[in-house]
Amino acid sequence: MNIQQLQYIIALDRYKNFTKASESCFITQATMSTMIRRLEEELEVTIFDRKANPIITTDAGKEIISEAEKALVHIKKMALVAKEDNGDFEGNVRVGIIPTIANSLLPLILKPVMEQYPKLEIAITEITTGNVLEQLKGNQLDFGIISTPVDAKGYDSEVLYYEPLKVYGKIRSNKKYLMTSDLIRETHWLLEDGHCIRDQIMSYCSLQNKDNHLSNLKFQSHSFETLLNMVDSFGGLTIIPELYVQTLSEKQQSKILEFEKPYPVREISMISYRSDVKARLGKALAEKIRQLVSEVLKPDLTQAVVLTGQ
């Protein structure tokens, strides 16, 4: 018994015709017929009723083919494990990432990751934390990149990096370092409901579900860019993560203010639901992301407080 024989009986079961099955395996009809006959003799069982037209798979044959399919899956997995052990990843990987991370992280990591793993097909979806959790559990995603911790059981997470939060705008007192109370007194602009960073900021700064102090305007945004534009137009403050700060123009960066120590940082992690699936790939990707981010982001965690509000 060999791998080719297993492939041949699966093909013949699918096409019910020696000519079509042999063509799909790129061999002659005679070779396929001989190899299948030898397998039947070795197992002492009839897998196919050749007298019928189209060919019929016997009951015993159906069970054997079912096991053959499982065997080929395991053989393919063994080959994949061997390649992964050498760092040669291939196939596809599905990643969900929340928008407030995607906008600054993806431009930093995608090109280096794709250059290191050219055989890996990466499908990225930009969605909310809730959808990441749901699609991981439904096997629609392999990994998620979100702000943690999250209140969800059954998920494994691996911290990628800690990202300080900065303030964009100008306050009346011209202070360089801000306390959370300064945000309460100033007009402040936040992302819309559904973004975890909004909940974290509101909890940390005790903003009590207030978006700004303009009496005739209620406004929520889904992008940092819009928040910055609103600050430029109306004044006030908004809070953005440091990786996003690094994408701003020199003029915009001149409007960045710091929190007093201990300053707030958010925890960014890669999560999965079935940690045994593509585990080696997950660890390799996580390590690559950590390496790339560490080159541009070096927070002093001894002077920081990790946000936990969700």
Q: What is the fold named in CATH at topology level of the largest domain?
A: D-Maltodextrin-Binding Protein, domain 2
- Largest β-sheet summary: 10 strands, mixed
How many β-strand stretches? 12
In round numbers, the mean pLDDT is: 86
CATH class identity of the largest domain: Alpha Beta
TL;DR?
The protein has 12 helices and 12 strands. With 310 residues, it is α/β, with parallel strands linked by helices. It folds into 3 domains: 3-85, Orthogonal Bundle (Arc Repressor Mutant, subunit A), CATH 1.10.10.10; 91-161 and 267-303, 3-Layer(aba) Sandwich (D-Maltodextrin-Binding Protein, domain 2), CATH 3.40.190; 162-265, Periplasmic binding protein-like II (D-Maltodextrin-Binding Protein, domain 2).
